[in-house]
Amino acid sequence: MELSDYLLTPIYLGVIYAIAFAIRPGVTNKYTKPYFIPALSLKLLGAIALGILYHTIYAGDTNNYFHHASIIYRAFGDSFSAGLHLLTTDGTVTPDIARYTSQMTWFGADSKEYFVIRVAALGALLGFDTYSVTALFFAVLSFSGMWAMYMTFAKIRPQVYKELAVAVFFLPSVFFWGSGLLKDSLCLGGLGWLFYAFYRGTIEKKNILRCVIIGIIAVRVVAYMKVYILLAFVPPAALWVFNENTARIRSVAVRWMARPFLLLGGSLVAIYAMGQIAAADARFNIDKIGAQSKLTATYLQGVSKQENGSGYNIGEQDGTIAGMAKLAPQAVVVALFRPFLWESRNPTMLLSALEATYFLFLTVRIFYRVGLFKALRTITASPVLTLCFVFSLVFAISVGISSGNFGTLVRYKIPLMPFYLSGLYILQSMTQPVVVTTRRPAVTMRRA
Predict the structure, then answer these.
(1) Of 93, 262, 316, 431, whose CB count within 10 A is highest?
(2) What sign has the CA pseudo-torsion 406, 44, 147, 364?
(3) Where are the domains positioned within the chain?
């Protein structure tokens, strides 16, 4: 890190906190207010910690992103029009930007990395080409979407607002890997805003135009970098909307008559949306997903052999959808509950192992106490639980099969972690008795 990092970071932190305290009354209530500043602080800390880790121990994408952003920053210093052209380019190399693009390995309008570079360049412009300030910019963007996610969950199930804060903000892997100058930060923020837009616009039916705009922006942001997140999220989100709106029809007869038509309409919308999303990246066409997964897993397993044996093997892939389906149970286990503690090879793996152990403990405890069939009935009867667990399982299968490396898996799986843990906490609150203390002797009552 440079001298500017030490000089400018405290100043920008002061500005961020001043803005945060100013807007906090408008985006919190008396229950969620205590978590706003601590959650933001963890995101900022995660961004700086990740930068220190990569600058002192590892060399990785975050350094490359900033290197490319610095080139755009210097281009603005030479010529404003050249810098603006690099930010808005369609990928065509013209004479005014040729000397800059020749220094960029990731240049190109269709490059997923170049989208991150564009955002990083905006951060570099705001922070005078300072890495740590640019990283804080990413942390704030990520936090905005995750706060929208948290407020949505808290509105759906306010009884567990404390636990939901833990699920969304205080998982170490999420605030570490999802805060810095990486794709993951922007994807988490975009997913949070998309979740908010679905609930606010299609279920509450409020601020519909604003929600459409937010949803479109969120979809484009996530699709630019990790389209498979949308492929896993859109179908259960459509099912969520369908179930919520069907349940609100008061007449049982009308509800059962309307149900097939609503389901058909929702399915058509979901299929169309998935087709448009998959069209953005040819690798995720239905007939290529299996082959792409095998290719990615093989590459990452090869990398893991060079990195202290952090790889795992859940079975041989044959490059087909059927082959992926056979590996689905193992993939769910590895994504949700591994690495086990004895598989840890370094501090970051140990951190992930502790989280996975907690996920396993909480899952077993809840399903044991409630009973498997009662838990499954509750999940299918509650639209938000259906969303949380279907998305988590689909996403777990996709990353569990394709990663092949615990070091990569810990980053790939962070979008599912807030949803899975939130689902567990909501399920627990809906199925287990809680003791309420009044002036009379304590009584046991069940939450609705």
Answers:
(1) 431
(2) positive
(3) 3-177, 287-433+444-448
